[in-house]
Write a structure and sequence with these properties.
Blueprint lengths: L13 H12 L6 E5 L5 H8 L6 E4 L25 E4 L3 E3 L6 H5 L1 E2 L1 H6 L5 E2 L2 H4 L4 E5 L6 H13 L1 E6 L2 E6 L3 E6 L8 H4 L4 E5 L5 H16 L1 H7 L1 H17 L7 H13 L6 H16 L7 H11 L16 H11 L92 E9 L3 E6 L10 H8 L22 E8 L2 E7 L7 H20 L3 E8 L2 E9 L2 H9 L9 H18 L5 E7 L9 H14 L3 E6 L9 H9 L2 E4 L7 H16 L1
Parallel strand pairs: 1-10, 1-11, 4-7, 7-10, 15-16, 15-18, 18-19, 19-20
Antiparallel strand pairs: 2-3, 5-6, 8-9, 12-14, 13-14, 16-17
Helix pairs in contact: 1-2, 8-9, 11-12, 11-14, 12-13, 13-14, 16-17, 18-19, 19-20
């Protein structure tokens, strides 16, 4: 077994370490979601926590880690008597992003269940993680149905497996930790709420701290065992402190004053439901125990709010999570009992500023003054933002037009459901019809590989004609592997929505560009809710640019859109060809995900020889491949040339005018375009 990087050797990351330790003290807090950029030691810190947890006593031979002092009465390996017990280290179980449902919850032997009527159950990862840690790296990339199963088990403390009338239940209480990079897509708000605490992490910008990170990592890579030995004393001290805090936890008193502050804070930040209040109460209690106190103070409540509320407060989908700390302090003062801030508590982190008490300053989290709301790219709404990485670069003098400053998007609006015609087989989502592992049963087929969803009636029909030949004599049905039938199910998939936005001088009128951005932002909101991937191509001056490669992070697309400058000629053909290249590559990467091309332009094509003819030929490439498309016609004024409509015909799609963008007709038209494309194909 490889030597893990010591928890106490992690440099900085105060909020992350504190949140993990509070869950180690009180698993009822509900786990931790760690959000941050790549390369910030998220996984390293989580994996290191496992070595700090106390050993667990288990019933010898029990596959479900039952506690000998209080065995699970419904344990599939039970009932347990007064047999031998054994002690082992707490486990950390990792759930891979590509895991199947059977791997997570366990699998039943369907053949034995049908033929013999026995519950032959093979435990899954939830059983292995019982009384330990279940770690999900890149939790935002996990399929939604697996996240639902995972969080339901975490909330109920048990896992249920139901297969065609055969039911198995076992205990599944674990510390749930998820890590994610927000640039790769967000979790749905309903799922965010199921994590007890959330922490934002970012790499330090202090040179000395970065030097120390590199120094320690190189020392660990050169000699993992020796490096761990040098930190063994700090690890043992922290392990003892966790044990002491666990023992003190039942004695901590959560007074009425602290409860009033918790309730007032949750109400002030307009969080939905009561889970936030309960999580804050448990977190504040754990903070007091961690600091070695038996009373909860205002400082504990404040720190609990900073950990438990940022991902629960009401916010627009593209707003960065966080709390207004001035508002938080005002609320606590108004409903407080004038208690002084608590002492930071005994001990502290190995770096002198580590976890301890309730006063750990946020690292990589909110600004000190929370009055300026942040955009998804981290800039303040009060100050001009630098163009984000990957945004279209200025092209002064390109094509004879001057660049204009970015225009603010108009207010977004709700769109109708957009769906690709036909039946796909793409990634799970909430948009178009598709064959999926979850949904309504539409038929049966022979399984390809492992059987996951049994179609009982079809299996019985396949086995029935062979019962006499197989010598059936008892009540049980004689079932062979060839008789098994997989249920085919129909659900919903996510799609790739690629926006090709004209940012030339002819589009630079502020009112027009604001309306265009508002329409694209509305479709981005819809893509966020329906679990789509999105991409953004812009064309202006003399060329086109992929401003945002296809991604699940629609807030990144919104940030690129907000910073989009305008000016120059209209290289329409270049924009369509760039979009064609992007879709070609994406078909190779993810052939099951079906695309929709949304071209936002007034249809004019300028610059170079025969620009209109070149644009028509480029559009023909998309039409030949059957790509569903819609052209948003941004032409205005008393004289309308109708060039966007001609472009739409060349694409095999439909055009909609700018005046129709704020109406529900735009989304309905996209849906009709997709249906028309499907019939033509």
């Amino acid at each position: 077994m490889s030597t893990r990087y010591p928890f106490t050797a992690v440099v900085g990351m105060d909020d992350l370490r504190l949140a993990l330790l509070l869950n180690a003290v009180s698993p009822a807090v509900g786990g931790v979601l760690v959000r941050g950029e790549k390369g910030t030691a998220k996984s390293t810190a989580v994996r290191a926590l496992a070595d700090l947890l106390p050993e667990v006593s288990v019933v010898a031979g029990c596959r479900f880690s039952c506690d000998p002092a209080a065995p699970d009465p419904g344990c599939p390996d039970g009932p347990h008597g007064t047999g031998a017990a054994s002690a082992r280290a707490a486990r950390m179980v990792e759930l891979p992003v590509g895991a199947s449902e059977d791997r997570l919850v366990g699998a039943l032997d369907i053949e034995r269940a049908l033929a013999e009527g026995v519950k032959a159950f093979e435990p899954g990862l939830l059983a292995a993680a019982h009384r330990g840690i279940l770690y999900v790296d890149e939790v935002n990339l996990l399929h939604d149905h697996l996240i639902d199963l995972l969080l339901d088990a975490a909330a109920m403390g048990a896992s249920y497996v139901e297969r065609e009338g055969v039911s198995v239940r076992h205990a599944a209480r674990f510390l749930l930790v998820g890590t994610m990079n927000p640039e790769e897509g967000e979790l749905r708000p309903q799922l965010l709420d199921r994590f007890g605490l959330t922490v934002e992490v970012a790499a330090s910008r202090e040179p000395e701290q970065r030097v120390e990170v590199v120094r320690r990592r190189l020392a660990y890579d050169d000699d993992p065992a020796g490096f761990a030995a040098r930190w063994a004393g700090e690890e043992a001290a922290l392990r003892e402190r966790i044990v002491a805090a666990r023992a003190l936890l039942p004695s901590v008193v959560l007074g009425d004053a602290a409860l009033r502050q918790i309730a007032a804070t949750c109400a002030a930040f307009e969080v939905d439901g009561m889970r936030a209040d309960i999580v804050m109460a448990r977190t504040a209690t754990a903070l007091a125990a961690w600091a070695g106190r038996t009373d909860v103070t205002s400082g504990d409540v404040r720190q609990a709010a900073l950990l438990a509320l940022p991902h629960r407060r009401r916010r627009n989908p593209f707003d960065a999570p966080g709390l207004d700390e001035d508002k938080l302090d005002e609320t606590l003062e108004e409903f407080g009992d004038d208690d002084p801030d608590p002492d930071p508590g005994p001990g502290g982190g190995p770096d002198g500023g580590g976890p301890g008490g309730g006063g750990v300053p946020p690292q990589g989290g909110e600004p000190e003054n929370g009055t300026d709301r942040e955009r998804p790219d981290g800039t303040s709404e009060e100050t001009p933002a630098e163009p984000p990485a990957g945004a279209p670069a200025p092209a002064p003098g390109a094509g004879g037009g001057s660049e204009q400053a970015p225009v603010k998007a108009a207010e977004p609006f709700r769109t109708k459901v957009l769906s690709v015609p036909g039946l796909g087989e793409g990634a799970s989502g909430r948009r178009s019809r598709a064959r999926t592992e979850h949904g309504r049963t539409t038929g049966a087929r022979r399984p390809k590989g492992t059987l996951t969803k049994l179609h009982l009636a079809a299996t019985v029909r396949a086995a029935a004609p062979h019962q006499r030949a197989r010598g059936r004599s008892g009540a049980g049905l004689v079932v062979r592997r060839d008789d098994l039938r997989q249920a085919t199910r129909e659900g919903r998939e996510g799609n790739l929505v690629l926006f090709a936005v004209d940012a030339s001088g002819s589009m630079a009128a502020r009112q027009r560009m604001g309306a265009v951005k508002g329409a694209v932002l509305s479709l981005l909101l819809d893509a966020y809710q329906r679990r789509d991937k999105v991409g953004l191509v812009t064309f202006r001056g003399a060329s086109a640019e992929l401003a945002l490669p296809p991604t699940s992070s629609v807030d990144a697309a919104a940030a690129r859109l907000e910073q989009l400058p305008t000016g120059g000629r209209t290289p329409l053909a270049a924009g369509l060809l760039k979009a064609h290249d992007v879709l070609r590559v994406e078909r190779l990467r993810d052939p099951a995900r079906r695309p929709l091309l949304v071209v936002v332009t007034d249809g004019r094509a300028t610059g170079g020889p025969e620009p209109v003819a070149l644009a028509a030929r480029a559009a023909g490439l998309h039409a030949a491949e059957g790509t569903a498309s819609v052209v948003v016609d941004c032409e205005t004024g008393p004289v309308r040339l109708g060039m966007a409509a001609e472009l739409a015909r060349a694409l095999g799609g439909t055009a909609v005018t700018l005046d129709e963008l704020r109406a529900d007709a735009i989304a309905g038209l996209v849906r009709d375009v997709r249906a028309t494309t499907g019939r033509a194909a």
